[in-house]
Design a protein that fits this description.
The chain is of the alpha+beta class and 241 residues long. It has two domains: 156 residues, no CATH class; 78 residues, no CATH class. The protein contains seven helices and eleven strands. Helix 6 packs antiparallel against helix 7. The longest helix is centred in the last third of the chain and has 29 residues. The chain is globular, with a radius of gyration of 19 Å. The structure holds iron/sulfur cluster (2 copies). Pfam families: CxxCxxCC.
């Protein structure tokens, strides 16, 4: 069983190694940074959760689908089989993140968790335990030292942990359900299921309403829809016997 990772690698199937031990909240860590801003350029790996997208949508006062169409790249995870939404670098503008203006993040108060954590990364276990670890970086410059809990608090990461855990647990449960369903469903019905996954995880949200109750409602709806699709497929299979 894999844990859920949010990290700068943006790899949903990322595996943490012994070289990246989990850090206690009161542990200290250090990293080097010369403030060049390159971590906001040429990035194909800034993965957004549904909560990240909702926060950006609320910041821009636009529906999540419009934000995704305007600023993101969508795919289906090869390992997770779930929707993956990433910020899309702007080719015409030195491959900058679409929200980079000069050396400033235009959505700073709603920036994605991946950005808020850097260079820390987050791991959520199947039991819902949240941990952090330091990613290896190739940056040089002034050495910055910080205590983990202070570093997380500077962008209010602890305040969003409960939502991130619910999102991660929901995704981990869905991975198993979707993988099972895909073994049964025809390609057409797999695509229909994927469209429902996008709606439930990313798009069917009102930015003026709290995120978590909408997530719970959407996950309930999605589970019902996947059951309907698999039952329909079973009936079709029985008819053709
Ligand atoms: S973390 Fe690295 S890439 Fe980002 S601003 Fe600092 S030196 Fe530049
Ligand atoms: S969202 Fe903001 S912090 Fe994150 S990569 Fe884009 S400009 Fe940088």
């Amino acid at each position: 069983m894999r844990n859920h990772h949010i990290d700068l690698c943006g790899q949903i199937d990322f595996t943490r190694t012994d070289a990246m031990p989990l850090l206690a909240r009161d542990a200290h860590f250090s990293f080097a940074c010369n403030g060049c801003g390159d971590c906001c350029r040429g990035r194909e790996d800034i993965v957004l959760s549904g909560f990240d997208l909702w926060r950006i949508a609320a910041r821009l006062r636009l529906p999540p689908l419009i934000v995704a169409r305007g600023f993101c790249r969508a795919s289906i995870g090869t390992v997770s089989h779930l929707p993956v939404l990433r910020l899309a670098p702007v080719k015409e503008n030195r491959n900058n993140c679409p929200f980079l203006t000069g050396n400033h993040c235009a959505i700073h108060d709603a920036e994605p968790l991946v950005c808020a954590l850097y260079p820390l990364a987050q791991e959520i276990s199947r039991e819902g335990e949240v941990s952090y670890f330091l990613q290896p970086t190739a940056c040089g410059g002034r050495v910055i030292e910080a205590k983990v809990e202070d570093y997380l608090s500077r962008y209010d990461v602890p305040a969003r942990e409960q939502t991130d855990v619910r999102w991660a647990l929901g995704c981990m449960e869905l991975e198993d359900v979707v993988e099972q369903a895909e073994m049964l469903l025809s390609p057409v019905l797999v695509r229909r299921m994927q469209a429902k996954l996008w709606q439930a995880l990313y798009f069917n949200y009102d930015y003026a309403q709290l995120f978590l109750p909408q997530l719970e409602r959407n996950l309930d709806w999605l589970n019902g829809e996947i059951i309907k699709l698999t039952e329909y497929q079973k009936k079709q299979n029985n008819k053709s016997k």
